[in-house]
Amino acid sequence: MQHPLDINSDHLCQRLQQVLDGMGGQVTPDVALAVERLCLSLARDSASAIGPRVAVALADIQADLPTLVAALLAAPAQNEPGISLPAPTMLDQNGKRDVQRLIDAIERLRGWEVRYPGPRAEGQREYWRRLLLAGARDARAVLIDLAYRLEGMRALGDEPDEAMRRRFAGMTLAVHAPIAHRLGLGQIKWELEDLAFRHLEPNTYVEIARLLDERRISRESYLAHIEQKLSHALIQTGIRAEVYGRPKHLYSIWGKMRRKQVSFEGLFDVRALRVQVDSVTDCYAALSVVHELFRPIPSEYDDYIARPKPNGYQSLHTAVHADEDKVVEIQIRTERMHAFAEYGVAAHWRYKAGGGSTNPFDMQVESLRRGLSRGEIRPLTAPMVYAFTPNGELVELPAGATVLDFAYRIHTHLGHRCRGAKINGQITPLKTEVANGDTVEVLTNKEPAPSREWAHAKSGFLRSASSRAKVRNWFAQFDREDARERGRLVCERLYRRFSMDAPARRQLLEALGVNSEDQLFLAVGHQRIAPETLQAAARGQLGATADRSARPPREEPTVGEPLPEPPGGRSLVIENQSIDGLKVTRAKCCDPQPGERVMAFLSRSQGYKLHRPDCRNLAHLAGQYPERVLPVEWPGAEDGHD
Questions:
Q1: Hey, is 529 helix, strand or coil?
Q2: How many CB atoms within 10 Å of residue 126?
Q3: Radius of gyration over alpha carbons of the chain, in Å?
Q4: 348 to each of 60, 193, 260, 335, how far by Cα in Å?
Q5: Which end of the chain is more exposed for a tag (fewer CB within 10 A), N or C?
Q6: Are 145 and 104 a contacting pair, CB within 8 Å?
Q7: Does the pLDDT at position 85 exceed 50?
Q8: What is the pLDDT of residue 533?
């Protein structure tokens, strides 16, 4: 088969004219004129033949007319293989908006491709694939870009700069070949991989090629014998079939050697045949003939017709011990299944990747691929966008994300410090949405200073729920620290007032029912423990002795005389059987009732005890511990409290 680079410009123009003639009335006069002018330019400059070669290649995979015209008009300049922008002099040759949109998309893709930074981790490589797919917005632009990439790889050997060759081949292998795989473009995918492999691993490439070539004559002779034997057996059973050898690709062989950790001789499918039949029934009939003719290897049998892969891939796979006990791998499929697998209808990329995916982006790509297989033109509405950091790393964000989302996606602390951003060098508001391919530079304060407004979805600052959660968490922590500090200041003033040492502080914690000083600070700061309760507990532990030693004893009230309410003191309220979180119980001596006027005595271990003001026991306790007697309000049953 003649290599595409060896086809002269006259023959290319003839083939291109045949393709356009086959489209009949679809070809408008302006398109015909554009092709005529292009062929005239080819006669003067054969180097510009890349456009027709790409158009002819796309015609082979049934591309529509706008795709072919856009491919012709998007021929790059020759300063770097497959990457430069379209020649502006050609853009005016066709004014169709559809074609113009495709050319704009191709220019956008090429503009991103020149920024590829070289080897990256798999996560970054995947982001690059998604950027090109999502940023194109039209799968036809991706097809054109892949076809030009293939032309660039075919001509890459002429590039004298080794670093440029390796960068171009590296991106092809990491980004473009997997994209071709996703769109089911098997032929383009295999050639891209083998050409890239040749430039990236030249010694390994040459060694595998040598091993293949060393045994090529004997292998081809052996396979021709098996092919003839199998064809004859199929004819004898009345099955119409085409039996042929499957081409082996060097990169695929190298990959299998690494994955299976076997030598070249240990690979089953170096000797491989394909059987193409008319119907599904014939597939199984042919399989029966194969297994009767040769001894099958049970572990190597897979029925992807009865149980298709999640991507829809269908075929019968088997491996057999053929003549001389040599292993031969055989695939059996219909013509439709073959087209499905080879020419962009099957999601062959997911078959190789190991199964289906529920990733929203992958599902969008699969929907787009199926649309292409039915001849439908649909945009790729990706659920994510991909933007660059200033150092060239790609960041994945939900569609509609803002520059503030971008900051939080990189690092939570960066988001908290964000005060603005630049998109492609221009200062923008925080609510500005990020688009595919944007370069975003985050402008920051020295210290975190988020706004509570950011946490509200309707404010428009943050599209991502996770980013808004980070803002809420920051303010929750801020409020917690603020409350802790307020509580600490109150407690430390109390400690100094009563000269409380470490043992006294521990007793205070026990009296208040908290486990640590940190919990005490938070409870006081959040006002879960009132200052009155805190002071009463402190006096109960240490203050009574100290106060009595510093002042004359208080005259004990007469038994039966109600205790006066402390001047200027406020009454605490009993709610849910507690006061400021401390348990409240009725004293058995006087048994007060809800709604009555009561006084509370703070005990050392049982919380508050409620007494009637004229209780004899309360009068005795007040004489000994006046600082632990407090007035309280006890709403009656009619107020909804007990």
A1: coil
A2: 18
A3: 41
A4: 19, 15, 20, 16
A5: N
A6: no
A7: no
A8: 86
